[in-house]
Write a structure and sequence with these properties.
Layout lengths: L8 H13 L8 H18 L1 H11 L2 H15 L7 H13 L4 H14 L6
Length: 120
């Protein structure tokens, strides 16, 4: 989503679903969470990934950093295509959040499994 500067319809649907079902977002609500997602994309364009991810790392506990990368991977995979720019952004995000490479790839592998299409 943020890697290409736009939030596509499948990515919007994925964010909405995560907001609906994840207790992380219950207090914020789906409308405000969608607004925040748009704000993050704008900040990434204006300030760059390094600054935005560094602020996220400072604000989130280690466990919520793992949750954040799960949501980011899941959103990036929502349209069925993981572009090279999205891969780079996810790697940058994982590093910026201080995730061990092994942890990042375990999370990534599970998220890919969860996004498989029937017959895939």
């Amino acid at each position: 989503a943020a890697a290409d500067g736009e939030i596509s319809t499948p990515e919007t649907t994925q964010i909405t679903n995560m907001c609906t079902f994840s207790p992380v977002f219950h207090a914020v609500g789906p409308d405000r969470t969608m607004d925040l997602a748009g704000d993050v994309v704008k900040e990434l364009k204006a300030k760059g990934a390094t600054e935005v991810f560094a602020r996220s790392a400072a604000a989130l506990s280690p466990k919520l950093r793992e949750t954040a990368i799960c949501f980011a991977i899941r959103t990036a995979l929502a349209d069925g295509v993981l572009e090279e720019t999205e891969k780079k952004m996810l790697n940058t995000m994982g590093e910026s959040l201080g995730l061990a490479e092994e942890t990042f790839f375990k999370i990534f592998d599970v998220m890919v499994m969860m996004q498989r299409a029937p017959g895939g």
